[in-house]
Amino acid sequence: MSETPSYIEFAEYSEHVPTNIPAAVQQATARFLGNRQLRIGEMPQWEELRQAASDIRLHTLLNLDSYLEKLEQQVTQAGGTVHWAEDAEAARQIVLGLARQHNVKTAVKVKSMATEEINLNHAFEQAGIEAIETDLGEFIIQLAGMGPSHIIVPAVHMKKEEIAQLFQEKLGVDAPPDPIKLTAIARTALREKFLNAEMGISGANFLVAETGTLVIVTNEGNGRMCTTLPDLHVAVVGIDKVVPDWESLTVLLKLLARSATGQKITTYTSFMTGPRRQEGESGPKEFHLVMLDNGRSKILQDPVGRDVLKCIRCGCCLNVCPVYKNVGGYAYGWFISGPIGAIFSPQVLGTEAARELPFASSLCGACVDVCPVKIPITQILLHLRRRVVEGDSIAPASAAPMVRSGAKLGALAFGVPWLYKLGTQLLPVLMAPLAKAGWIKALPAPANRWTRVRPFPAFAGGFRQWWHRRKK
Ligand code: SF4
């Protein structure tokens, strides 16, 4: 459902966030964080695990070419087929081609952020193929005609009453606002689809290069249904999801569920290596793995930005982010939101289309403190802000000329002591007509973006003057 945006209007959206979203998001994320804290308390080696995970992810990225080759070898040896997709369009065409070859009318989907990234559902719709999301949260937002608003809980912004209303309208059933009953309704609606679908589409949490194994971590049984019932299983996965071996996987699995929902382990952790070997075994007849690049190779060339690819999509950075918790996921304009979205989208879509996102942060660093693979999110945000304003070898500057001039002026003022001193003497005088009781209620544009939501403290004079007075 997530269309590839040509421009993400974070600031515009943030000003019109529906009032129900922050409350629903904060309630759910607080629960996850509470559980996470309990799990960490049980693990004295938590910090060592984080460091090990960070090292494993970085090592894999720096040697990605050889691990990808190994993965391809192993998947092929296990009877599967690997396809390489340079961009979203190539990935869509590969999956559509497979669907047409097998005369697919209905496909069931599970756990696939990569298919959100390539907007596969839309392509299927255009081709007249029904694609059904089977994760409960994804099923709900698909019915509502929306994209995900959180990495692991896509319908986090919706209350049970809204979901009941949606089921009544779209499924024509009597749906009480009771989570157990709503789940039962979804299960009944989906069962038929599982049994009749000709194609199962999945993503993967990890791909183990050592054996060519696809790993799916989920709390619902739909993962196994999607990947074993239909005769054709197609997995669309980012090239960054590869891990070297089972030992590395163990470290990452220990961190993933605990960081995401605060569980020790999720209900289902499924491992799939190729299609079924012989008739009578369960599993698909054919297994295809579509490896999606879509800008990732380019990100790898940037020594600062590339750490974004260490992400294991636990969603914890969203749960702690004061900005995300107040605006929800849709403000980030694409399938991935929160702090990880703010550093991923500008690098994939480009800093022209997503230039507002690196600024969608207070830089408090809460995300860095919790990230299980130690991604320096704030450092990458600053790096991308610089790219937006000044440009670099990866992308030219994309900020408006006025913002760029302002930034240059600021850099000059802070870099030349006498100019800084003069500014601190002039500013209180210039601001005096706007200030009342030490606060300014409305600043002129473009600074009015601040005062539209909160007052600005009147400039009271510089540190030097204060120090001088104090010494006297
Ligand atoms: S950036 Fe870190 S905390 Fe955020 S989703 Fe990725 S792994 Fe989790």
How would you explain this protein's 3D organization?
Helix 9 (160-171) crosses helix 10. This protein has 22 helices and 13 strands. It has helices at 10-14, 20-41, 46-62, 64-77, 88-101, 113-117, 120-126, 136-144, 160-171, 179-196, 222-228, 246-260, 296-300, 316-320, 324-327, 338-349, 366-370, 377-390, 401-415, 417-431, 448-451, 463-471, and strands at 81-85, 106-110, 130-133, 199-202, 206-208, 213-218, 232-238, 242-243, 268-272, 286-292, 435-436, 439-440, 456-457. 49% of the residues lie in helices and 11% in strands. The mean pLDDT is 93. It is α/β, with parallel strands linked by helices and 472 residues long. It starts with 9 loop residues before the first helix and ends with a helix. Bound molecules: iron/sulfur cluster. Residues 151, 259, 311-317, 340, 370-373, 375 line the site of iron/sulfur cluster (SF4). Iron/sulfur cluster binds at residues 151, 259, 311-317, 340, 370-373, 375.
Brief summary of the model shown:
The protein is of the alpha/beta class and 472 residues long. It is built from 22 helices and 13 strands.
What tags apply to this protein structure?
472 residues; Rossmann fold; 22 helices; 49% helix; binds iron/sulfur cluster
